Amino acid sequence: MKVTDYLSREDIARFTAKSDLQAWRLVLGNWLGIVTIFALVGWYPHPLLILLAVPLLAGRQLGLAVLTHEAGHRTLFRTPWLNDVAGQWLCALPVFNDMPSYARGHLRHHRLAGTLEDPDLPNYASYPVSRASFRRKLLRDLSGRTGVKLLAAILRGAAGITSGEKRASARPFVSQLLVQVLLFLVLMAFGIGWVYLLWLGTFLTAYMLVIRLRQIAEHAAVPDLYHPDPRYNTRTVDAPWWQRLVLAPNGVNYHLEHHFMASVPCYRLAALRRHLRGCNALANVPAFDGYGAVLGHVVA
Questions:
Q1: Low-confidence stretches of the chain (pLDDT beneath 50)
Q2: The whole model's pTM is what?
Q3: Is residue 248 within 8 Å of 214, Cβ to Cβ?
Q4: Rg (Cα) of the chain, in Å, rounded?
Q5: Domain boundary assignment for the chain
Q6: H or E stretch including 213?
């Protein structure tokens, strides 16, 4: 599947155009969602509201991870240094990640997707799995075991979540701690310091689950995981807005299109999908309407 088979030079320029305004809209919109959840739960700490806040907050944490991914590709902001600074301090560090090391690992995934050398294979190569196996995975995530294991790895020297790299120095870890302390102090200043426990607890539980579901949706039980064409080794999920709110913020559900041309910003992937459909480039690609359909496919 070659880009030039379906896109003219003008199409490529249009779809790869980056915008600082669009990027700030996503970053600030994501943080507005987080602040709103903090305020509502902090000032009206009803158990049902807290229960509702957990998946919504996990979706916002995933939103930050997706924007880290975009900044790592240098496609979020048009201004290069904003990808480095905003991508690290406003997106990666709040969710215990380190953008430079994440980007290095993730770009290897792009180079090697569709091969046995893909570094992300352990996340999805075993699918489809049995219901019993999938229940065990969900239990590990929601009980906090997966999250605690991740934090332990970061303490021992991992650069961050999903990076697969060791820290070259203590700087990323110190930066991660600094951002967490700043977040706690800001909440303390507003008299709701306890809400930080909700942030951390969500990260250790529900966020681990939504990351797993996202990875499954992108590459698990695809037509041919070891085919070089992204139409066979990658999946896009056409999900309704309420699913995207938690499981696919910032266009991350358009993963096939992202692998087709990784230089397209996330805020233009939906338009790229429409274009590819119009060209019949996706005519023989299995369609999945929602994450329930994906789970029904990957869990035997």
A1: none
A2: 0.95
A3: yes
A4: 19
A5: 3-298
A6: helix 206-219
Q: Which of 89, 52, 98, 35 is nearest to 246 (CA)?
A: 52
* Distances from the Cα of 63 to the Cα of 60, 69, 91, 194, 246, angstroms: 5, 10, 8, 23, 8
**Which residues in 222-251 are b (16+ Cβ under 10 Å) and which e?**
beebeeebbbbbbbbbbbeeebbbbbbbbb
Tokens 């997966």 belong to which residue? Answer: 146
The one-letter amino acid code at 181 reads V
Q: Which H helix or E strand runs over 24?
A: helix 20-43
| Residue that the structure tokens 């907050």 belong to | 57
Contacts of 248 (CB under 8 A, 6+ apart): 214, 217, 237, 239, 291
Rounded Cα distance between 52 and 30, Å, is: 17
* pLDDT at 165 (0 to 100): 67
- The C-alpha atoms of residue 138 and residue 209 are separated, in whole angstroms, by 7
Instruction: Give the angle subtended at the CA of 99 by the CAs of 194 and 253, to the nearest 5°.
Output: 85
